[in-house]
Amino acid sequence: MYPPKHYQTNPEQIKLMELIQDNPLATLIINNEGKLPHISHIPFHFDEKQALLIGHTSNQHPLAKKLKRNQIENITLVFHGEEGYISPNYSEGQPVPTWNYSKICITGEAKAIIDSSEKYQQMEFTTQFFEKEQAKPWLLDSAPSKAIENMLKAITIFKVSLKEINGQFKLSQNKSAAIKQQISDQLISNGNKKLADIMINSI
Question: Quick check: is 146 in a domain?
Answer without folding.
Answer: no
